[in-house]
Amino acid sequence: MIERGEILKIFQRVKNAAFGAYMAWKGVQYDFSSWAGKTFWGIDNSTLATNETIFSVVTRLSNSMATLPLKMYKNYQIEHNSASDVLINNPNPNMTGFEFIRNLEVARNEKGNGYALIERDIRLQPTRLTLINPDYVVPVIENNTKELWYEVLGDDGNRYYVHNMEMIHVKHISSSSKISGINPIKVLTNATEFDKAVREFSLSEMKSAPNSFILKYGSNVDTEKKQRVIDDFKRFYKDNGGILFQEPGVEIDELERKYVAADTFTTERITRSRVANVYNMPVTMLNDTEGQSYSSNEQLMRMYVDLTLMPIVRQYEQEFNRKLLTPTERKTGFYFKFSVKALLRADTATQMDAYMKGIRTGIYKPDEVRTWEELPPEGGNSDKLHVSGDLYPIDSLPAERSGAQTNNNAGNEE
């Protein structure tokens, strides 16, 4: 007997396939006679839009993921099919592959979760990837099959259920009893509120009136003289300076202001450190270089890639491989892969030295190096592995080495 979960899964796949076939059949035609589209207006008052430290972190992470070269391979060879074309070139009619990856990563870092609905054709091949607002998605576990589904609140007010194989889901870490990722901005609530309070205090201090003063009168100062001193001081205060005569029996003391600009700088450093810790990023990437020392830019980027990007890249790759490729494709060697080498390029001299050593030791083909440098491949011998003439396997016999063979031939001739 078919379980309820299996029935829901089959229904969802049939629905997606039928929708894809219908869209392919009717073609691209739009009727604006009864247009009721969605408009975007107003001011964004979210933490992401009002905190420059968090904005810079999310921008760096999302841009890094979007700019990493993404390709589909089969046994180390680049391949192309409908899934790779949709993901890399045309996820949906509204955005490019760059925008899709960047917006998905922004949602992951702003809300803790990024969701994209997979739409398929009648052959169950991906035809469209649609981003969904994480606020409208709730993961649920089906009672009978214990499989993961996503409850999605539609624009029409209805609730729809999508099987986990039809939804790309990238997230931050989750607690032991949860499936959704933890929102990193909520984790930073105390830090952002403290930073906001310090900024508001600093701004109010800078906007406040100039220094304050204390006027002291001696017992021998009469009322008329007091009034003259007060009027004279009011003029001095209003004009923000000038000449002020201190009458006998009158003392003027300035109230010391406690605000120090260095306090704001220290607070900003603390905020950058906390934000960097939550997003698992080297604080140097937030332009805080005090006490930091790196021998080269490559060393800094390697730390960024190893500590920050690799877990994120691995999560994306597994989501794409599991949900955009069929089991048959995966078994025959198909897989998606981001190339993090794009962020680890050294300076020109170091890079060329690495290429030369790789070619001389049979690691790289000359044509592969030309391709990495965006030059056309030459073919022929350039498409072959080479080995230096002064290198031999450690177990080779002396007689098999070219120098020994040359000496033997010379001895025979004599």
From TrEMBL:
The organism encoding this protein is Virgibacillus massiliensis
Highest lineage ranks of the organism? Answer: Bacteria, Bacillati, Bacillota, Bacilli, Bacillales
Biased composition range(s): Polar residues: 403-414
Q: Where is this region: Disordered?
A: 373-414
Protein name (Swiss-Prot/TrEMBL): Phage portal protein, HK97 family
Look up the domain of life of the source: Bacteria
Q: Which Pfam families does UniProt cross-reference here?
A: Phage_portal
* Entry-linked InterPro entries: Phage/GTA_portal (IPR006944), Portal_HK97 (IPR006427)
